[in-house]
Amino acid sequence: MDYFFFIDLIQSTVDGLLFGTTYALIGIGFTLIFGVMRKLNLAYGAAALAGTYIGLVLFLTFDAHPAIVFLASALGSGAIGLVVYLCCFRFTPTHYPMASLLASVGMLLFIDEVVIHASHGLPYPYPSVFRDAIIEAGDIWIRGDLLFVFFMCVVAMAILFWLLYRTPLGLATRAVSQQPRAAQLCGIDVTRVNMMTFGIAGILGGIAGAMTAAAVGVLSPVIAMGLTVKGLIVVVIGGLGSIPGAIIGGLLVGAAENIFLLLRGVTERDIYVMLLLFIFLTLRPGGLFGSAQTRD
Amino acid sequence: MKLSTLVTASVLALAAAPVVAADKTINIAGFGASSGVVGIFGQNSGAAMAAAVEKINAEGGVTLADGSKAMLATEFYDDRCNAEEGISVLRRIASTDALVAVGPTCSNVAEPLFGILQAKVDDAGDTGLQFPVFTDVAIKGGLAGISEWVFRNTPSEATMYDNLFAWIRETHPDAKTIYGGVEEDFAHSRFTWYSVMKTAAEAHGFEVVGEAQWLLNDTNFSNQARGMRRAEPDVVAISAHPFTTCGMLREMDRQRIEPKVLVGLTSSSSLETLTGCANEAEGIIIPTSFAPVNDEAKAAAAAVEAKGGQLDLHSASAWENIMILKDVIEAAGIEGTAESLEEDRRKIRDGLATLTEAPGLLGANKRMPDGEAVKPYVFVNAESGNWEVLHNPGS
Amino acid sequence: MDFYLGLLQIIGVHTLLGLSAYVVLLTGQVSMAQAGFYAIGAYVAAMCTAMFGFHILPAILVAGFLTAAVACVVGFPALRVKGLMLVVATLAFGEMVRLFFFNFTWQVERGGELIGPNGAEGFRAIRFFPENGWEIWHVTGFIWIVVAVVMGALWWIDNTRAGAVLRAVGHDETAAQSIGLNLTAVKVGAMTLGGMIAGMGGGIYAHTVTHIEHLVFGVLLATFAIAYPILGGLGSVFGTLIAVIFIQGFLVEGLRFLGDWRSLLFGALIVLAMNFRPTGLLGERMPRIFKRRTGEKLELKEAE
Predict the structure, then answer these.
(1) With 90 as the cut, is the pLDDT of residue A96 above it?
(2) Which residues does chain B have within 8 Å of residue A18's beta carbon, measured at their own beta carbons?
(3) Contact B83/C216, CB-based, under 8 Å?
(4) DSSP string for residues in B118-152
(5) pLDDT confidence of C299, banded at 50, 70, 90?
(6) Contacts of B315 (CB under 8 A, 6+ apart)
(7) pLDDT of residue B7
(8) Alpha carbon of B392 to those of A235, B165, B285, B378: distances in Å?
């Protein structure tokens, strides 16, 4: 245990925690959708990526300010989220989840290919802010842009909480996620709530996509699959339908990933992350904050 | 298109039809990924092949065994960089009247594809497919040895990097240490660092002080860059695709790692790296088998651009392949009839196998007995958003 | 002609992959581990023939049984969870297998060359078929005999009590449990059978492409494995077959002339298909022509 190792360990953990907020956002998106619809939307990561590309178009054509680029990414992703809902979930039977699952796979392939077709698969630079700012605390460096990413993600989560717990819309959403039929009987328009949820989840995904791209500085279609898989892992660790769970899960995955990278090298890193998840799942099937599974 | 133009064109086409019908057509099929994340490679190759064929046809086409002229024709098939699809595409090409195939673009398609071909010519016990393949893009070292039906016109990375490090030794005598960066889960990047760059650097007296490893779709490089920062290398060599190359270069920039020399992977000397991160890539040195350094190369680049593609080191090989095949077709005495199809394919294979030298855009390519090529090359570096020739060993 | 025989090989191999997911889907579980089982089968069978000189038939059987054993062992912990949790748990397992082969190097010398899995660079020269004088139609014939045996066996199972048990668990676990079915045994059994089929499919796959590497066995392949039976419909084994023909024959091969527009249509057509035929191309029920013969049993099952 020499000094460098200790520094590396702290540094890796800090980086991982900061980066983990993007995983948390994706996880929240999955959890929201799963909460209200009890269905898995595999096109989610791809929609987030496509939204990020919408922001990129503004950046490349008008050299828009990063704030506008981020906003456009988020809103664009929200809009694509609605399209995904209409194409994959609105008209497929609710009692047969396989149909919407496969439709969202088709949508995933389609969105991915549209993005690739438009961009020729080339990586493009994505704007970021505070990219040269570094806070140096002794031998530990904290990246300014990652701090910004962290801050943005926290703000997004705060707004989400306000939306869910302080507005009528949030009340409706929570009602549908608890008991869709009862909510309907109380006069809540379930379809509208579902659409709103997809829109909001899309916006969160767009923010996560934009923040990932801003942290790397480059945007390429290859990140979609990573976002999807990481998001799923986060949801499961945190517990289905639990937003605090998704946040903690995201931070945990981010940190674990970086620590295993340091300890075991890159080729074995993901094996350990997966193994951890597998063990976690079998020992605690409900996730960190999961409620006991009940029969619908 | 206006109706009148359409009518005129149809009339002309009808009038010309008898003449065309008397002529024969020699089909050369192209294949590779033209959709998906690496689709740009196939799109460029397809454009380069189409442009080269157009040039040859404008100059009168190719001469067949009986002295008659034939036009070349080409069609490009998409394999999506998928092994099964690549095999299926080649079988489909073999079922048409194409004499030879140019492709594929991905090394992970090339390996299985070459495996289904007959390993040794005239080996009756080997039922592999008998069809000549002349590869343009798939670059991972040593693949042509898999089958005697395979020829490649890809640059020899071993030669290029050996000379590059010799040149760096000469121009930067004070540089002593090297640090490698490699994308671990991609066969080509891995092979190039461990078997090509590292060997070449050590041979020229550089001390390898460390290796940074990451994966194809990684987004966080801070751990890797930190190791690099502590080693304080004089030279940094990165063997990765443009996306992670850009990510890593950004992180190096952020952690203020400033090596004296920065070396990149051959296939990164394309437009991708520059669209991705022109600023960070500034100064990166890459050996490449193509740069528009002479009139012929410039004319070819313009012709390919007119077809909607880019001429880079990969698509330049596609262009050269068509030109080489024209010579081979003329020298081998191809008959070009439906009955002679099998024989003609064999003749093209034998013709390619006997070549010891072939013309290229930067000068003559040496043809090796195992089907590989050693091509002339230049060292380019990224300079204000363009690839500029830094050193031309041939001149 | 060779081209069509080659296409039939691809369809055959993918049918095995799809059927392996079909068995598990019957019990209502979405397993993303099939690509992992397929990878184990591919590597094991390839090692048997290329490194140790086995014949293809024992190699595939070894691959099948070994993969079945792995699937059984994995099934116990994994099937404690269900729904989305199971999707992710099996996904994690599949990725673990892939990453294992990514790090796995074991080469032996045969005929002056090193042969065997070589980490990230893959496993080259699995040339049992061409080296032993198998013509392409031999290979195609061999694959389809295996496919026919597997489909026949599954068809038979489907029409016995075992099939009804599988579907009962898939339809309503609590109800199935209350009539005395052992859920764990049924699910693990389905997982084991699915693993065996995937292992055999993977073994054949390795030999048709001669070179395998970890990247092939990723999440995308796992997604395709479950896509086939869902797209085709869970009514019978023929749904999977139809879906494989639709995807590999029509979407992949048939539309190749469209160039890069083909990939765009690919996803869009799957979305359309699921909107218009949500329960799959052939639907949830067994096709009518087959129904007549086995009608009675089915009526019983549907009545429950």
Answers:
(1) no
(2) none
(3) yes
(4) -SSTT-TT---B---EEESS---TT-GGG-TTEEE
(5) very low
(6) B41, B44, B45, B47, B48, B136, B137, B304, B309
(7) 47
(8) 55, 14, 13, 5
Backbone angles phi, psi at B220, to 5 degrees: -130, 120
Q: Does B185 sit within 8 Å of C102, measured CB to CB? A: yes
**Cβ within 8 Å, pair B276-A12:** no
* Chain B touching partners, 3 or more CB pairs below 8 A: A, C
The B-side interface with A (CB below 8 A) comprises: 35-40, 43, 184-185, 213-220, 222-224, 226, 230, 242-243, 246-247, 250, 254-255, 271-272, 275-278, 280
pLDDT category, B13, cuts 50, 70, 90?
A: very low
Task: Identify from A216, A223, A228, A253 which residue to disrupt to test chain B contact, counting B C-beta atoms within 10 A and taking the largest count.
Answer: A216
Alpha carbon distance B29, B97 (integer Å): 9
Contact status, residue B351 vs residue B371, Cβ threshold 8 Å? no
Residues of C in contact with A271 (CB under 8 A): 96, 99-100, 103
Q: Are B330 and B350 in contact (CB under 8 A)?
A: no
By the 10 Å C-beta count (0-12 exposed, 13-18 middle, 19+ buried), A230 is classed as: buried
Domain ranges of chain B: 3-155+293-374, 157-288
pLDDT at position B14 over 70:
no
**Which CATH code for domain B157-288?**
3.40.50.2300
Residue of B nearest to C14 (CA): B84
- Cα–Cα distance between A222 and A112 in angstroms, integer? 9
Fold equal for B3-155+293-374 and B157-288: yes
Q: Which residues of C touch B85 (CB under 8 A)?
A: 252
Mean pLDDT of chain A: 86
Chain C residues whose beta carbon lies within 8 Å of the beta carbon of residue B84: 10, 208-209
Nearest one of B124, B221, B128, B134 to B182, comparing CA atoms:
B221
For B83, the closest chain C residue by CA position comes to C209
Please check the confidence at residue C24 and state whether its pLDDT lies above 60: yes
C260 neighbourhood in chain B, CB within 8 Å:
34-35, 39, 43, 78
Taking an 8 Å cut-off on Cβ atoms, the answer to whether C99 and A270 are in contact is yes
Distance from CA of B304 to the nearest CA of A (A): 17
CATH topology of domain B3-155+293-374: Rossmann fold (3.40.50)
Q: How far is it, in rounded angstroms, from Cα A45 to Cα A223? A: 9
β partners of residue B19:
none
* Residues on chain C touching B80 (C-beta within 8 angstroms): 263
Nearest alpha-carbon partner for A289 in A241, A234, A245, A232 = A245
Mean predicted confidence (pLDDT) in C63-71: 97
Which segment, A150-154, B352-356, C294-298, is predicted with the most confidence on average?
B352-356
d(CA C304, CA C302) in angstroms, rounded, equals 6
Instruction: List chains touching A (3+ CB pairs under 8 A).
Output: B, C
B379 bridge partner residues: B287, B391
C78 token code pair: 């994994």
Largest CA distance in chain B: 74
Chain B residue with Cα closest to A218: B276
Q: Which of B251, B263, B249, B282 is nearest to B180 (CA)?
A: B263
Of the pLDDT bands very low, low, confident and very high (cuts 50, 70, 90), residue C287 is low
Using DSSP bridges, classify how beta strands B62-63 and B100-102 pair: parallel, antiparallel or unpaired.
Answer: unpaired
Whether this model's pTM surpasses 0.80 = yes
